[in-house]
Amino acid sequence: MSKPQQNFRTPLGKVRGLGSAKHGAGHFITQRVSAVALIFLVPWFLISLIGAVRGGYDGALAWVADPINAVLILLAVGASLYHMRLGMQVVVEDYIAKHSTKAVLLMLNTFVCIVLFAATAYAVLKIAIA
Amino acid sequence: MSSWTDKRPMSPHTTIWKWHLTMASSILHRVTGVGNYIGIFLVVAWLFATAVGPDYYEPLSGLIGSIWGQLILFGFTLSVSYHAINGVRHLFMDAGMALNPKTGSFLSGLVLVLAVAMAVAVWLLSGLVPGVDPLNMTGAV
């Protein structure tokens, strides 16, 4: 038998520089770690939020102002945004073949998630610390 | 894709592929994932409006309370339920469990039923359905 091939990439593939970005395992693991966190955070958020909505505006304020709720809201929304950024990244990478479009959408995905987190952090901190 | 010139066979595409439960489940997981992505805008908007003041909170609350708002909210509940329950199935599959075709099909169907049941239960038990409030969540006497 001949010597096993060490590298399966074609010369053209190497020149184009495409292929694995070597971040696959990290992506896979963090996606699942955030998923495990969300198994606990999402049910709490759902039940707790429904209770908060009952009390109208004052009830909503009181809900966010509670220290434990404030921390859990940041964790729940933060983990969700982190998880959904990873998920949307895969969706874009799967369906968008054109490089420029893909790059723009991936960047947009990151921006959207960070903006949503900033808005959440502002809202929760403003209410909880004031 | 019009730019695709490679004549070699492509991997099976949804339009020419026989539908089966595990495939539907996989597609639904992705669809609901994107649905949740859109849905969280509502959650963040609600938190933000609460922080800014009643001038923003009340109109948003009214919008969510409308029939379209309620439909969207129920869709979001269903989407979160499905993605969460099917996500647990995915974690087991990642661990190498529940992978044979029969188990896969059975669990795909079960997840579908459980997701609908969970969304309906959340709405019925939390008093979100008008006139139905078994746990007296709305505080009405």
Brief sketch in words of this structure:
Chain A has helices at residues 11-16, 24-54, 56-65, 67-95, 99-129. Chain A is mostly helical. Chain A has a single domain (31-129), classed as 3 helical TM bundles of succinate and fumarate reductases (Up-down Bundle), CATH 1.20.1300.
Q: Could you explain how this protein is built, in words?
A:
The complex is a heterodimer of chains A (130) and B (141). Chain A has a single domain, classed as 3 helical TM bundles of succinate and fumarate reductases (Up-down Bundle). In chain A, 82% of the residues lie in helices and 0% in strands. Chain A has helices at residues 11-16, 24-54, 56-65, 67-95, 99-129. In chain A, helix 2 (24-54) crosses helix 3 and helix 2 packs across helix 4. The longest helix of chain A is centred in the N-terminal third of the chain and has 31 residues, at 24-54. Chain A starts with 10 loop residues before the first helix and ends with a helix. Chain B is mostly helical and 141 residues long. Chain B has a single domain (19-125), classed as Fumarate reductase/succinate dehydrogenase, transmembrane subunit (3 helical TM bundles of succinate and fumarate reductases), CATH 1.20.1300. Chain B is built from 4 helices and no strands. In chain B, helix 1 runs parallel beside helix 4 and helix 3 runs antiparallel to helix 4. The radius of gyration of chain B is 20 Å and the shape is extended. Classes of the chains: A mainly alpha (130), B mainly alpha (141). At the A-B interface, helix 2, helix 3, helix 4 and helix 5 of A face helix 1, helix 2 and helix 3 of B.
Gap from first CA to last CA of chain A: 74 Å
Q: Largest interface, by Cβ-Cβ below 8 angstroms: which chains and how many residues each?
A: A-B, 36 and 35 residues
Count of separate DSSP helical elements of chain B? 4
Structural class of chain B: mainly alpha
Q: How many E strands of chain B?
A: 0
- Estimate percent helicity of chain A: over 70%
What Rg of chain A do the Cα atoms give? 21 Å
Q: What kind of sheet is the major sheet of chain A?
A: none
Strand content of chain A: under 5%
Q: In CATH's first tier, which class of chain A applies?
A: Mainly Alpha
CATH topology of chain B: 3 helical TM bundles of succinate and fumarate reductases
Integer tally of domains of chain B: 1
Quaternary assembly = heterodimer
Q: How many angstroms does the end-to-end distance of chain B come to?
A: 60 Å
Annotated CATH architecture of chain B: Up-down Bundle
Number of domains of chain A: 1
Q: State the shape of chain A.
A: elongated
